[in-house]
Amino acid sequence: MQKNLLEKIAGKLTLPGIRRASFYFFLILYFILCPLVLFYAFGFIIRPHEQKLVQTGLVSINTYPSGASIYLGPSRYIQRSPAILSELLPGRYNLRVFLNRYRPWSQSFYVSAGKAVLFDKVLLLPKILMPRTASTQAFVNIIPLEGTPSCILVKGHTFKDDYLFDGSEINTEPLASKIFLYADARLQDLMTIQDNPQAVLTLILQKEIKYLLLLPAKDSLADISAIVIRPPERFFLDPNDTSTIYSLHKGQIDMIKPQTGAIYPEYVENIRGFGAKDRKLYILSQEGVLLRMNQDKTATEIILSDAPLSASIFDPKGIYEIRPLMPGTFVFLGNEGQLMTNHLPHRICDRGCRGISFDDQRDRLLFWTKNKIGTVEFLNDNPDNDPFSNGSVVQYIFEAGRDIKQCLWVYEGSHILFRDADKIFLAELVPQGPPHIEFLVQVKNNTNIFYSEETGTLYYLDAKKEGLEALDIVSGNAPAALPQAESTENQEGT
Amino acid sequence: MIFTYSRCNLDRRQRTLQRFFEILPGATSWGILLGFILLSLWEPLVAAALIIAFDLYWILRLFYMNIFLALSYARLSWERKTDWLKRIDDTRDIDRSLRRPQAASSGNKLPEIISEVINRRELAELKNSGQTVPSYDDIYQLVIMPVVRESRDIVEPGIKSLSEGAFPSRRILVVLAVEERSSPEIRDAAQRLAAEYRGRFLEFLVTLHPDGIAGEARVKGANATFAAKVAVGFFTEKNIPFENVIVSCFDADTIVNPDYFNCLTYSYIVTPNRTQASYQPIPVYHNNIWEAPAFARVLDIGSSFFQLIEATNPEQLVTFSSHSMSFQALVDVGYWPVDMISDDSAIFWKSYIHYDGRYRVIPLATTLSMDITQAKTWRKTLVNVYKQKRRWAWGVENFPILMRAFLGSPTIPLRQKLRHSFKLFEGHISWATWPFLLTFIGWLPTLFAGREFSHTVLYYTGPRITTTIFSLASIGLLNCIILSLLLLPKNPAKNTFWTKMGQALEWLSVPFIMIFLSGMPALDAQTRLALAKRLEFWVTEKERKKAADK
């Protein structure tokens, strides 16, 4: 009986028939599933109570260290950081993160439909900071070497008291041991530039000025005094060219090649501004024309020739350091602390800018004055090719400083470490709202700090002991990768 | 329809059309790939949504194909025990056979019931067609084996299998079609083989295809055509009607299974309008399967699987590799194209156009075994496999000719034209683009994500959905692994649990194979066709270990 039935079924079925039926089945399935999956992908859910389709958003949180408990409003999530909390209805939320022995972290934010709010670099600070002693020796100051992972530890007033420190160990031999003739010289000045791994040191030895080129990575220190033929007002370095130094003297640039000993006096004349990057020279002429040319002075291009615009940007006197940050974006740093950019509104800081630092991962510029710290985000919102017509967003993240001396990008540009007088603070930049600012430590008066991005450690001189202290801000491995999104249903009660 | 199935000697309009349709597949494939890359850069949100829609389409199609792979494999295994000679005998008195009690009554199992149901359906169809049923004893087989540089080691096992099969070898004419440009050793070996095996067959001919015949390219089809013309003389002289001759054009390394010709003859007898059909077995690559590198083994098992799936869709099945057809049809359509590399599929399309769409391919529930491309070194094997797959992908050369024929044919129904042209076009485009989309381009929106896209929900849900889809795809892969283990012959060396595990793990090379030995050769072939840089016929290198080496 059963077999007869099988036979009848088999008799009715044909392969093309099965194939056709399957084809239509899968076709219908696709047309049903595809919109559903796409709706889900864009964050749409059906609200069970209202039977209404709504678009949700999500929040991604990644803390260092990981494993922190997450609270969103009154609900605690089973999942610990890093986590993605999805299917959040548009609205304001309060996110709180707790981890034993660490300071609690919270942030209020707004979730928009289809959008993700990212807190992807949350640094949890220990409730009690535990600095460790890196050296018990007493130091006078720290001189960070920008562009290198090293700093100079100053122990006394002569060059023989200066030691190189690379974040892991202090060289037992003073810098002067390489050029012992200058042991009694005094370190007068130091020129570094972001991303360039060398520094030009200016020393004074019995009223005579000497110039040394320091390359910490190669542990090399060379005397270049013989090829610096005129006392420079300042040096310029190309971040991507370690073979060339430019020195400024009365509006003229001498080009110096330390490795070959070649000198090109008065290589560029009558300048009001100068900069170099990728073996290209950027020159602001006395007439206010901004030019770019190859290092060998070929392929000259005019970037700005609009005299009124130039006059509105640059002051009539003074010399500007031109820093090309990325294609189409430059900043101009005047010797009175003027900070200008080619992006509108051009003048960021009329005077008093004490320093700048560029975060090339997020294309943001950090600048600071005595009392304020600000960031500049460069926009590319002008369809024309005019580099002076794009906009920028200037945002002040701290405006109550007493005497801001140093600012550094920390943890891949997510935080700013700054020294205000003798106090060190850490500011976390959050997507919405003001930054979180945490006090870290007090340092010896009028001394610098050194931060090693490689190890995530802050070095400073202790206010009382004057010894070198180390404080791990981001130490060990990077935070874990983000897991899959978790819906709001996956939560515990309050 | 009278149509010259060639790209040569065209008038201006036809030449323009030919170029347009030559460029179309390559341009479409590149357009899709570059379009996705650019979209990932400029509109990552749109690109990510399209990728999800595509991934979903792919997974459903994978499941769909897996169903038919399993069904087709089941049919193949069920028919392994079929007594084809008895089935042929049943065609002598169809009424009596149909009246006979069904298998269910005699306590048979489901596979046998299904096999018998199919058999009865075929007999009933033949009866309803009212056509005369040829006698088994009147059917002759013509086997043409083109040879260029295949040594005796490669050719002889195939000849031997022809003589040792269940079909009377005295009704088989074997033609070893040797190229004049072949080395003297190859030519001598062919003559020695003929002398040795002649007595076992109706006749064993060796033809020498001259080089440089006007209008011919150096392709296999030209050699086979030359041999077929010699066979015409033979059968005419023997007064054997062409409609009673089934011609099989086999690669030189083809070994037929003992039941092949009986299965083929049964299908030929029961097929109404039997002369207007090709007969397609399932090609398997078992001759040297345990000597070939894992990647080549997985790839060729994949080819067999593809053919198994295709066999379930006879309405759109196209001939591939070694297959058979009516000699009458071959003569009527003017033999194989003599200027095309893809002679296996081209002969189907040529016949399809000649008979105004009344030509089809009948899938055979039997296998033919061939060699996996192999060379002396692993690296050379890789290069050879790449070249072989590019030659297969060169089947896209049929597309422009077919489109010209379709545009000029008022007799082929429009629906059929659309179905065939879409399938051919879509098949080649997906061949060249899917591997890149699935393994590489699909992840670009996330990799290239700018600030704006990385702050959307889709940036987070997209990879999650894709990962889920890929996890589901492993079910399809598992099905393939199981079927491959069932389909493979026993490893003569050892067949332990660990060997089987090793064979299963070989399937992990699928992403590499997809990109480098499937997508890239196909894209290469389409690009060459679009740029009018035609492919020369490249004879696949075959290596088999001699018995003493094993």
TrEMBL record, chain A:
UniProt entry tagged with the keyword Transmembrane: yes
Domain of life: Bacteria
Domain PEGA: 57-123
Pfam families documented for this protein: PEGA
Keyword vocabulary terms for this entry: Membrane, Transmembrane, Transmembrane helix
Transmembrane segments: 21-46
Name of the protein in question: PEGA domain-containing protein
Source species: Velamenicoccus archaeovorus
High-level lineage: Bacteria, Pseudomonadati, Candidatus Omnitrophota, Candidatus Velamenicoccus
From TrEMBL, chain B:
Keyword flag Transmembrane helix: yes
Pfam families: Glyco_trans_2_3 (PF13632)
UniProt domain Glycosyltransferase 2-like: residue ranges: 247-461
Annotated transmembrane regions: 20-42, 48-71, 429-449, 469-488, 504-523
Entry-linked Gene3D superfamilies: Spore Coat Polysaccharide Biosynthesis Protein SpsA, Chain A
InterPro entries according to UniProt: Glyco_trans_2-like (IPR001173), Nucleotide-diphossugar_trans (IPR029044)
Keywords: Membrane, Transmembrane, Transmembrane helix
Protein name from the UniProt record: Glycosyltransferase 2-like domain-containing protein
Annotated organism of origin: Velamenicoccus archaeovorus
High-level lineage: Bacteria, Pseudomonadati, Candidatus Omnitrophota, Candidatus Velamenicoccus
